[in-house]
Write a structure and sequence with these properties.
The complex is a heterodimer of chains A (114) and B (112). Chain A has strands spanning 5-7, 10-13, 19-24, 31-37, 44-50, 53-57, 65-68, 75-79, 88-95, 104-105, 109-113. By secondary structure, chain A is mainly beta. In chain A, a hairpin with a 6-residue loop joins strand 7 (65-68) and strand 8. In chain B, strands 2, 5, 6, 10, 11 and 12 form a 6-stranded mixed sheet that branches. A 4-stranded antiparallel sheet of chain B has the order 3-9-8-7, with no helix packed on it. Chain B has a two-stranded antiparallel ribbon with strand order 1-4. Classes of the chains: A mainly beta (114), B mainly beta (112).
Chain lengths: 114, 112
């Protein structure tokens, strides 16, 4: 297992377009998290899954954002009608259920909305 | 109030000098505490963690952090830094036992 994989690494899109990011977690981990990180800030929690169930969503996750983990393995994060304020690094992480061992993060997807 | 507060946004030090990166947490988070490091254009890597037991925890590359309940702090220290330690460091804690919340980060810059 090579860790948490995120695809693409970089995405440039025009305002108003839809984008979708993919995250492949560590296979033994049943929890998967999405975070957003803007320049000079710490990661901000967006949502998390336990297996295929989405258990919590942040207020940051507007109705233009949707996340899925259909089979409890990989996850997708879609942003519809992108805005310039959506420009950020989107980080995915996974963990065992308790999470006490810490999260394993992917390298992130950097989104630039022009 | 911020759940996890990192008091310094940037810390410049000279190579081989000691360094302390400060982190304070609020009562709204648990005392499962973590430090993560982020090198340029990479994701976050776990540096060390405190769950219970000894209040002093160490990483494999010479960093250590001490959990201080009375001061609600979990400061990160290294007695002698190297150029390769240049990175952004994030303190984190569990909120509601469900998700990690992070501080704003401290950029550590090592000058030769």
């Amino acid at each position: 297992d090579t860790g948490v994989s995120q695809d693409p690494r970089h995405k440039i899109t025009k305002r108003g377009q839809n984008v979708t990011f993919r995250c492949d977690p560590i296979s033994e981990h049943n929890r998967l998290y999405w975070y957003r990180q803007t320049l000079g800030q710490g990661p901000e929690f967006l949502t998390y899954f336990q297996n295929e169930a989405q258990l919590e969503k942040s207020r940051l996750l507007s109705d233009r954002f949707s996340a899925e983990r259909p089979k409890g393995s990989f996850s997708t994060l879609e942003i519809q009608r992108t805005e310039q304020g959506d420009s950020a690094m989107y980080l995915c992480a996974s963990s065992f259920q308790t999470g006490e061992g810490g999260y394993t993060f992917g390298s992130g997807t950097r989104l630039t909305v022009v | 109030a911020q759940s996890v507060t990192q008091l310094d946004s940037q810390v410049p030090v000279f190579e081989e000098a000691p360094v302390e990166l400060r982190c304070n947490y609020s009562s709204s988070v648990s005392v499962y505490l973590f430090w993560y490091v982020q090198y340029p254009n990479q994701g976050l890597q776990l540096l060390l963690k405190y769950l219970s037991g000894s209040t002093l925890v160490e990483s494999i590359n010479g960093f250590e952090a001490e959990f201080n309940k009375s001061q609600t702090s979990f400061h990160l220290r290294k007695p002698s830094v190297h150029i390769s330690d240049t990175a952004e460091y994030f303190c984190a804690a569990f909120q509601g036992a469900q998700k990690l919340v992070f501080g704003q980060g401290t950029r550590l810059t090592i000058n030769p």
